[in-house]
Specification:
alpha/beta; five-stranded parallel sheet; two-stranded antiparallel ribbon
């Protein structure tokens, strides 16, 4: 009798466990491009196209944005970031060189347009009246950077920061370097590792860090002029601009018809006005690129 009771209890427990437990296996490939394999039980509806669409609405591509430096016109990075924030577009990586690298670093620290604006007003007060890329100008930036970033490294900011440098005449991106050291090298044109010694695009190097959308742009007037920069520094800058102003695949030129020198101290409100139309066009392009990425990934997962 006891044996029969034990058999009945065993069958009852086994049946209950089969009804209560659903087993779902999800295999995520190391390479997202290889897709997602989902094996589920017969009663599980996860994996239908409407579920994939819902998932992708909440997913965004990893985005890298490079601002090719145009000295003080690079300050137009601020109104660009404001527009991206309005559209809820988040950056995972930001990159620049020279003075643009410091602007990129200030944004990367807090990933906030408001914070960037506050810091840029403070920075420009300190640089007022100083000749661009002079020793006094460089030392002011280094002191400002040391106070702002202390021991922080490029990959420790809220948005990862990439500043190119030269090793064996090749462009490299050192993600582990201190922000202060990277800024010091990129504004010192006589440093042998300075990117401006061998200027070139570095889209491929950024692709290798694992981004989905790799965006690049430069803020530039239709007529390029300088206010104070001359001599050796003039030669370095013009060689670099000769490279970046050519029609290049992957670099979006945001232009203004206002004839304002690259090294002239321009109010941020003026730069906002000068470049607003170009910024609107660029952000629309970014939104379209994100939409295309989501559509392609939706089709991939549905298939």
């Amino acid at each position: 009798m006891r044996f029969l009771l034990f058999i009945l209890l065993f069958i009852s427990c086994t049946t209950a466990s089969q009804k209560d437990i659903e087993i779902v296996e999800v295999n995520l490939a190391d390479d997202p491009s290889e897709g997602v394999t989902i094996e589920d039980s017969t009663n599980n509806s996860f994996g239908k196209s409407e579920d994939v669409d819902k998932m992708l609405k909440e997913e965004s591509p990893k985005i890298a944005l490079t601002i090719y430096s145009s000295i003080y016109h690079s300050l137009a990075f601020l109104p660009l970031i404001k527009e991206l924030e309005k559209k809820k577009i988040k950056l995972n990586y930001v990159s620049s060189q020279g003075f643009g690298a410091l602007i990129a670093a200030l944004y990367a620290k807090e990933a906030s347009a408001s914070y960037l604006e506050w810091k840029l007003f403070d920075l420009m007060k300190k640089l007022r009246g100083k000749k661009v890329y002079s020793e006094e100008w460089n030392s002011t930036i280094v002191n400002f950077t040391q106070k702002e970033f202390k021991e922080s490294k490029l990959d420790q900011l809220k948005v990862k920061l990439l500043i190119p440098e030269i090793e064996n005449r090749k462009i490299v991106l050192n993600e582990q370097e201190k922000v202060v050291d990277a800024i010091r090298k990129t504004i010192d044109f006589k440093n042998e590792k300075n990117y401006f010694n061998v200027p070139d695009t570095y889209l491929g190097a950024i692709d290798r860090v694992g981004v989905d959308l790799n965006l690049s742009c430069i803020f530039i007037p239709e007529q390029v002029k300088f206010n104070k920069i001359d001599g050796y520094n003039w030669g370095v800058i013009t060689k670099y601009l000769g490279m970046v102003m050519r029609p290049l695949d992957g670099i979006y030129q945001l232009k203004t018809t206002e004839s304002v020198e690259l090294d002239a101290e321009v109010p941020l409100s003026d730069l906002n006005r000068f470049y607003q139309d170009s910024i609107n066009n660029f952000t629309q392009e970014v939104s379209r690129s994100i939409g295309k990425w989501k559509e392609e990934n939706t089709n991939h997962l549905n298939n």
